C-alpha cells in the first residue's frame, strides 16, 4: 500500500493544547508549542498532522473542555443518548475518554451499566477511573463509546485495534468526531489545531469498518457519528475519489474586521484559542474573551494569555450594539437570549 503523503496545510508554533487553562497570562503565552503539517495519506485516505508529537500531550485536571454548561450542547447530548439507545439497546458500556463524566452520568440516569476512563476527571463517581484506559484494567463491555477522542490519537486504526483486542475482539462501538468536510466547506481554519492530530470524513469510517450499522452528521453538521461492529475493523484503503484539497481562500476569514473599538469573542475553548492566536499574528488582537464555563473563567488562554471572563463581566466592557464574534454559530440564539439582543453577534463559521 502506498504511503505517499500530500501536504494540505501548514502553520508553525501552535499551542499544543487549546483547552488547557493557565493560572497567569505569562503561563499562557509561554505554553508549549508545536507545528502543524496537515497531510493526506494516499494509501489509507486518512488525514493527520505529520509533525504531531504524542509524548508532549499530557492531559490532567487543568484540561477543561466540558461543553455541557450550554443548554444547546445538552440538547446535542440528548440526541446522542437517543442514538445510543436505538443502536446499542440495553447493553453494558465502556466510555473511553469520558472527560468530566457528564455524558456518562446521563447514560447512568437512563439505566445503563457504564464505566469510564479519563485522566482529566475531577468528580467522585465510583464508575469513573481517573486514568487512561488500558488492557490491564481487565474491563470489557458489550458496547464502547468514543466521543471526541479518536481525533486526539496519533494512530487511530492502531488504537481501535487496541480497543478491539481489549474487548475480546467483539462489541459495538459509537464514535463521534469533528467532520473535516464541514471544516472545508465552512473554511473553518480555527478548527485545525495541534490537539487534533486526525481529521475525519464519513468515507474514512466506511474504509475502516466492514460493518457500519449507522453513520451520519449531528450538531449542525459539525460532527460525524458512526456506530459499527468493532469486530469488522480493518486497515483502510483509499480510492481516487478520496483525495481532498483545501480551498485556495481557506484562511481568508482571518482578516475579518469589526466596527467595535474592542474585539470580543464568545467561546474560550478550541475555536476561540485558535481564533485569538491568528488574530495576534495579523496584528488584530482579540480584547475580550467570554465563556459560560465557570472552570475557564478567571483562567488564561494558551498562546495569547487572554483572560477568560464570565458573560456578566465581559459584556460590561462592551458598548450596546458592539460586535461579538461567536466561535460556534450553534450557540447564537442561546447567546442572543442571554445578552438580551443588545449586541451584534457574528458566527465565525457563517461568514
Automatic annotation (TrEMBL):
Gene3D superfamilies noted in UniProt: NAD(P)-binding Rossmann-like Domain (3.40.50.720), Vaccinia Virus protein VP39 (3.40.50.150)
Keyword Transferase assigned: yes
Example GO BP: methylation
GO molecular function: methyltransferase activity
Ranges of residues in domain C-methyltransferase: 258-341
InterPro entries: MeTrfase_14, SAM-dependent_MTases_sf
Key words of the record: Methyltransferase, Transferase
Keyword set includes Ribonucleoprotein: no
Name recorded for this polypeptide: C-methyltransferase C-terminal domain-containing protein
Organism of this sequence: Thalassospira xiamenensis
